[in-house]
Amino acid sequence: MDAIGRSMLAAAVDGRMADVSIFSPASPQAGWIVELAILALAIIGIIFLVVEGILFYSVWRFRRRQQDADGEPAQVYGSEPIEIAWTAAPTMIVFFLVLVTTRTLWEVEAAPVTPRAGDQSLFVTVIGHQWWWEYRYDSYDGRKLGFITANELHIPIGDDQIARPVHLTLQSGDVCHSFWVPRLGGKVDLIPGRTNLLSFETTEPGLYLGQCAEYCGAQHANMLLRVVAQSHEAFEAWLVQQAQSAVEDPAVAAGKAAFLANSCVNCHRISGTAADGSAAPDLTHLMSRETIAAGQVANTLKNLRKWVHDPQAIKPGVLMPAFGLSDHEENQIVEYLRTLK
Ligand code: CUA
């Protein structure tokens, strides 16, 4: 998808472009990171100005003049004070940067290990796949959840009384990925055979865009993700809806049968049906998501039909092949999927 198409998709939700700049942080964690970035940029900027200043001054001050004698100018070899200075100054600067970076890392990473009393914490296990995100909702405010969704992460916002931190347990189903939502936190890798943690909290409702930040194959650039931060009430309602089994609509029984009779069932899961695959996104509440193909295209009838017909046309390399179904069967399946609200 081209850049214009993608920004239109980002704008579709609330009528304005979603901001992805690290310079407009919406969580304390992202705030600490940007403070560090600005400090480092300032130090680097000063070094640049000093070095370039000395360079330009030297070129101008020691330029060749008319009254200069012919031949080489005086050759100077070594200066102990200068050599000591340019060894000591960078060492001190790097040491200072190490200290402030370590402090920020410590602050950002302290959250998962020190839960605060009175918080309503959300715990989600995020599993990176080529090229989509699996979210297993573990618990919220001490209550067990246990449903699975994909690509669009819903989180509650905190308020003056109650903080609602989000604790993500990051794992990979295949290769290395990296979870990055610039306005909410730093990048944290999802590494096969290893578990990483990432925590953040926000009080600002809205849509936060993110994406995979570690090269993971052909469609790395289209491994997008969305975080929907909503009020406690809206989030609770969403939890209730997501925990339900798929709706049974007799009008699309033929589509459901076609879904279960074809290869769809090997990879996808639809709660309450025989489809229990885990290699591809859970489709139980597919229509509650705004996008398909990991945030790549809007979840419209046209795109869904195109996806079922030939996923490679939208996401070349995607593990879901075109199954060569008849038009009739494709339509039935799409009609069934459209009822999965
Ligand atoms: Cu997943 Cu890059």
TrEMBL record:
Domain Cytochrome c intervals? 250-341
Top-level EC class as recorded in UniProt: translocase
Please report the record's description of how this protein sits within the membrane: Multi-pass membrane protein
PROSITE patterns tied to this protein: COX2 (PS00078), COX2_CUA (PS50857), COX2_TM (PS50999), CYTC (PS51007)
What GO molecular-function term can you cite, just one? oxidoreductase activity
Per its UniProt record, what SUPFAM superfamilies does this chain match? Cupredoxins, Cytochrome c, Cytochrome c oxidase subunit II-like, transmembrane region
Q: Where is the Cytochrome oxidase subunit II copper A binding domain?
A: 119-241
Its subcellular locations are: Cell membrane; Membrane
Cofactor(s), by name: Cu cation
Q: So what does this thing catalyse?
A: 4 Fe(II)-[cytochrome c] + O2 + 8 H(+)(in) = 4 Fe(III)-[cytochrome c] + 2 H2O + 4 H(+)(out)
Q: How is the cofactor bound?
A: Binds a copper A center.
Cross-referenced InterPro entries: CcO_II, CcO_II-like_C, Copper_CuA, Cupredoxin, CuRO_CcO_Caa3_II, Cyt_c-like_dom, Cyt_c-like_dom_sf, Cyt_c_oxidase_su2
Function per UniProt: Subunits I and II form the functional core of the enzyme complex. Electrons originating in cytochrome c are transferred via heme a and Cu(A) to the binuclear center formed by heme a3 and Cu(B).
Give the family per the record.
Belongs to the cytochrome c oxidase subunit 2 family.
Give the protein name, as stated in the record: Cytochrome c oxidase subunit 2
